[in-house]
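fwd from M.: "can u put these together and see what the complex looks like"

so here's what she sent:
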Amino acid sequence: MESRICFSLNGKDVSITTDPLRRLIDVLREDFDCKGVKEGCSEGECGACSILLNGKMVTSCIIPVGAADGQQIMTIEGISATEKGKVIIDAFADGGAVQCGFCIPGMVIATYYLLSNNPDPTEDEIRLGLSGNICRCTGYDLIVESVRLAAKRGGELWKK
Amino acid sequence: MEEVKCYLPKTLKEALEIKAKVDVLPLAGGSDLMVSHKRTLGLTPVFEKPVMIIRNLPELKRIYLNEKGECCIGAGCTSAEIAENTLCPWHLRQAASRMGAIGLRNSATIAGNLANASPKGDTPGPLYLLDARVRLSSVRGDREVLVSDFIVKYRTIDLLPDELITQIIVPLSEDDFDYIFWHKVGTRKANAISKITLSQAIRFAPDGKTVEDFRLSATSTGSKTNRSRDVEKLLIGREITDETIESVVEGFDRIISPRAMPEFRREATRRMIRRFLSEAAKKPSSKVIDTYDGYHMTGAPVPRGEENG
């Protein structure tokens, strides 16, 4: 069964006629070419497919696209074009946060979500903010450092 | 494979009308249903019956205190929304704040957690403890059932085909007790499924010694959440002594039936009961006894309504 689903994707109104039970991750990747949304665990645990749904971080692998009807979605493609997103991405690059890179889109989303709600987090708060994002390469320390760097460099930007 | 129908109601009224006509599976957060019905990468999950997506129904998103001061939580409220809202009772906020990962807590709903009726579910423990009720609505009207009756047994709930869970009503809160306890034993700090979680609360009579109310519930210790009023009565009306503590410990040990690692779960349960009661007897200044300190919430309960009005 197909339905017409309309939502805002990275600030642009889009629509698609499809099975509302298709997973949001699949629609974003296949129909809207948001290949930065990665699939890791497929059960909402690893955070690789994280997106912002109405400003809140969610895992897109457990959400049927029908639930996105009328809602606002930001993916890494949209985030990375924003000023805040650029600060995070530069900090991740400079801080050596990235090894294989698979978890990084989700990590950037988690960092964006964290710093937007808590502009000056402690190390514990950073680790908590990233606790839903699993990385199998780096052991997290450089990622945590990079989040700290993004918080510092962004400064007032995070309070907007 | 034949595709099942999927309904996308915009209002609760519309959802109840659909439910009255068709036996649909309500899907809100998706954190249980999308996972249990998933196939593989890129493939749409397959459901055995029509699905009704109710994630965004505005009527199910409210949290407020009713005229009796009971906390009424919309069925569609997520774990994150409950964890953040100071109108919600402390035990429930603790459980909600430690449920799965952050992204999942922004999807998973309280009604979904109850409907899933898993003995490892995070919210039933506090809801059993605080005598919470579920409101079940249909086009015929509403009815309320105790959460502890609503979850009949393992993966089985008391829900008629035309009914939808619309609200969770929690009559009690930490304000009704002198000392409170919530502890989840998981294999990790975050993203953990409960190995065992204990919720406890106690109130003393005006003499300061006699126990006026005592409650204890445990998850992951049997086929459903455990609570026993008979065991609680072993302490109510008495004072906390080594003997009364052991009577509760032994009584509770008899009603739980942990399947995997039973000795570990029994011993952890025994220790947490002893810890709570022996500390409460000392009358410490902190209301919270031995909670998971400093990880997600500071532990100290904020007066109800102070943050979110």
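replying to her w this: Chain A touches chain B at residues 1, 3, 19-23, 26, 30, 39, 42-45, 47, 50, 53, 56-59, 61-64, 66-67, 69-71, 110, 113, 124, 128-129, 131-133 (CB under 8 Å).
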